[in-house]
Amino acid sequence: MLRVKNPKLQAAAISICGALFLAVTKLTIALLSGSMAVMASAIDSLLDILMSGINLMAIRQAEQPPDRSHPFGHGKFETLATLFQAMIISCSGLWIIYIAISRLNQNNRLENINQGIGVLAFSAAVSWLIARNLSRVARQTDSSALEADSLHFRMDIYTNLGLMAGLIMVRKFDIHWLDPALSILVASYILREAIKLIKRSLTDILDHELPDEIQQQVDHIIRTHKGPLAGYHGLRTRRSGSNKIMDFHLEVCKDMTVAEAHKLTDSLVKRIETEIPGSNVIIHIGPCNIETCPGRENCDINKNPRPDQFHQL
Do residue 197 and residue 222 come from a single domain? Predict the structure, then answer.
């Protein structure tokens, strides 16, 4: 196992090792039993190795600090990795459907069904452990690539349990066509999840705004921040990998000095970045646009106004 300190890299490395172990085990049993269901699960694990490897490389690149050519960082590498994974998953689903239909026409009988049932049960348990770890780290780091990887292994849990139940029915009722039929159902489920991943990655690539919950959180932070703030407008947000990029125009007293305005915005940026991990905030300063200015000493905004007095244009 790779020795890495970054939790995202460590989670990706663990998923590679787990997927490799499962793929070798299931591929061996699939060849011995002739089960298309186990073979489909083995192929899925082989793809997990490829995708986890891509995640590892993408996350390493995405974690690189901003440079002259990439002032906003390299977070889009994670998004591109997610899109690539989704396309690979789609191809694997179509391939499984093609092979399963061929098996339906051939009506092959299965051998060593008990081995297939055992390896699928074992695979479901290992996949659950890996998915749990990936999901935990994905939530902590807000990584779309690890979230996608976690989804792959969660899919493995349900598909392995479903295929295992199918093999039990094959053994009990001697319905051998059920094995490729279940493989088609699994492949259809894989295709549906792949389409979801494609939509999510394209959303980030096209710079769709952040979810309403995050925008509302930003609004609350600005409104409750201590300091003479008159209002704000023009909030723009987007995602780049694990980074949440946002900028807006902040209105302050027109009589503030540059040093005072800088100190105020600096404290606001630090608060947003603390309460919303992964934030990259840019604030544009503008003067208060109240037509009848009462003067700095008599202005209400210098008396820490209530949130309902705050205005957003």
Answer: no
Q: Measured on CA atoms in the order 118, 121, 124, 126, is the torsion positive or negative?
A: negative
**Are 158 and 120 contacting, i.e. CB atoms less than 8 angstroms apart?**
no
Helix (H/G/I), strand (E/B), else coil: 65:
coil
> What are the tens digits of pLDDT across the range 185-195?
877 877 887 78
- Whether residues 216 and 193 share a domain: the answer is no
- Classify 92 as helix, strand or coil: helix
Q: What residue has token string 């902040």?
A: 250
**pLDDT tens-digit profile of 157-170?**
877 777 777 778 77
Residue 201: which domain range?
Answer: 7-205
Which of 293, 282, 225 is CA-nearest to residue 256?
293
Pick from 143, 170, 205: which residue ends a domain?
Answer: 205
β-bridge mates for residue 279, sequence order = 244
Of 65 and 212, more confident: 212
pTM of the model as a whole: 0.55
